[in-house]
Amino acid sequence: MNKFKYYFIVLVTTISFFSCSKDNPAEIVPLREYSIQYTTDIATIEEYLKSYYITVTNRPGFNDDQDVVFTKIPTGGNQRSMWSYLNATSFPKLLSRDVNFHGITYKIYYLVLREGTGEKPSNVDGVLAAYRGDYLTQVAATTTTAAELRVTQFEESKFPQSFFSLLNTITGWGEIFPQFRKGTYTTNADGTISYSNFGAGVMFLPSGLAYFASGSGSIPSYSPLVFSFKLYEIQRADQDGDGIPSYLEDLNGDGYMYDFRNKVSYPITPTVNPDDTDGDGFPNHLDVDDDGDNFTTRLELTYKDSNGLNQLYTFDNIPDCSGNTTNSQRIKKHLDKNCK
Ligand SMILES: [Ca+2]
Ligand SMILES: [Ca+2]
Ligand SMILES: [Ca+2]
Ligand SMILES: [Ca+2]
Fold this sequence. Notes:
- The protein is of the alpha+beta class and 340 residues long.
- Helices cover 18% and strands 24% of the residues.
């Protein structure tokens, strides 16, 4: 009898132990497959695009210029869905961009309300942007409620004070902001700044290009995100500190620079990095010696000859500002810009 009692206690203890572990927050849950989550996310995003319409404030010079309100199309409503602007020839336009990441091809939809009139950031520059962020959730049906695509605002920044590096924020920002231009601004008598002609849009990001499993703040795991934004100003970066701003180290001039050494994220085509002159794996914006001649780019740009003139090394065969042939398109671009 005592023996039976002992076994019973052990059994109860064991059941309790496993019951506790089920709810233990420290329990490790395997990450979802990026490709599977993407399939779910893109379906949610397309449903949102097809079932909501936008109302855009058009008040140049005022803070609410290009503010966007998203509203669900009521049953029988005849409002134009966001989806109806797909590949439109006038603004707003709903466009998409394919992004190779995590070994899959993501499609990012983005609405262009206005392109902007100034310079574009590259995907490694900084941006000063007003924005509003929403996350999308598919809420399952219950016995009393129907299934619902829920939209929840998690953040709004109307008067940005600091730049975000597109290299360090979520991947989706770095992919979409280079499609827009900054505008112009004036400082008012009271010290406030009025922005005009800036690029404005909305991006629809699968969770794999946002916070994925980790979530962030009030954003749940695996949430597709929607950001409406206004690009007020950009900040050029020089990641390798060679004196050439990174956007001028973008050899193929597409506005994007990647570090393909991380094969987990970029097992992609093209396998040859178009922005890596010497092919050593370090793209030019991260390479202190772009052409691999063992002389740093900074030295090549700052060397002074016997006459004290700021010349490049003659062995590099790079000419002066007259625009002669050079063995480095990148440095030529730099000279072109600085010789105007
Ligand atoms: Ca640089
Ligand atoms: Ca590029
Ligand atoms: Ca290189
Ligand atoms: Ca060099």
